[in-house]
Write a structure and sequence with these properties.
This protein is an alpha/beta fold. The chain is built from twelve helices and nine strands. Strands 5-4-3-2-1-9-8-7-6 form a nine-stranded parallel sheet. Strand 4, helix 7 and strand 5 form a beta-alpha-beta unit. The two termini are 24 Å apart.
Length: 263
């Protein structure tokens, strides 16, 4: 089993997301350590990008804050953050980025740096399934898992997407961009059923989940839940003082996730 797969072994995984460099790279490191301390099983780290097309206003603003902070927040600086924090935590770390920064850095060089700095997987929302082949040799060479996203619009492509899935599947619960939602109306169970017909890769639900009650509900039917905007919103509100609020929030969400674990 890979380090990512191990995060789902024997439990429903709680996955937290934050944007690197918001409010600073040093504080991001503290936040990642605090999220693990609160019980997070895997942490997604967003590499700031000027045009994060899959993100709603909360995470878009976090990207702007990171990129305009004193000293900026380059891809190489984020690799430095990953290298430091991977020595302090044991949970898997996954980068969420876009294809342009990876292409510009060089596929082989980017995947090699991921391996060197303790990154286990990549999420690239704007990488079309049909074009993943150009990146796969580099991923395979350095043992980096490409996380597949499956959305409600993917119905006709689910089997194709799921068969190639590695690490875990990021099941997008709602249409549109990331953001907190009071109610998720998608028939998530139908999507889960279709995916499970062709793969036993763990499935984590994201996009919109932000309360312990939602975490409990979706942990009952999926293998994990992903929370991003609610965490990033707290970081935006509290800035340099965000560590405790984020840790307290993640602990409550982890408890909700555990409550949804089948006996």
């Amino acid at each position: 089993m890979s380090k990512i797969s191990d995060a789902f072994k024997g439990k429903k995984a709680f996955i937290g997301f934050l944007t690197a460099g918001d409010p600073s790279l040093e504080k991001t490191e503290e936040l990642i350590v605090a999220m693990e301390r609160a019980g997070a099983d895997l942490i997604e780290i967003g590499i700031p990008f000027s045009d994060p097309i899959a993100e709603g206003p909360v995470i878009q603003d976090a990207n702007v804050r990171a990129l305009t902070a004193p000293g900026g927040c380059s891809t190489e600086q984020v690799f430095g953050l990953a290298e430091r924090v991977s020595r302090r935590v044991t949970v898997p770390l996954v980068f969420l980025t876009y294809l342009n920064p990876v292409f510009k850095y060089g596929y082989k060089e980017f995947c090699q740096r991921c391996a060197e700095t303790g990154i286990s997987g990549l999420i690239i929302p704007d990488l079309p399934f049909e074009e993943r082949g150009e990146l796969e040799p580099a991923l395979d060479s350095f043992g980096i898992e490409l996380i597949s996203l499956i959305a409600p619009t993917s119905m006709e492509r689910i089997h194709m997407l799921a068969r190639k899935a590695r690490g875990y599947i990021y099941l997008v619960s709602s249409m549109g961009v990331t953001g907190m939602r009071r109610e998720i109306t998608t028939d998530v169970e139908e999507l889960l059923d279709r995916i499970r017909q062709v793969t036993d890769t763990p499935i984590a639900i994201g996009f919109g989940i932000n309360t312990p009650e939602q975490a409990e509900k979706y942990a009952q039917i999926a293998d994990g839940v992903i929370v991003g905007s609610a965490i990033v919103k707290l970081i935006g509100e509290y800035g340099e003082n965000a560590v405790k609020p984020v840790e307290d929030y993640v602990r409550k969400m982890v408890e909700g996730c555990k409550a949804g674990t089948d006996d």
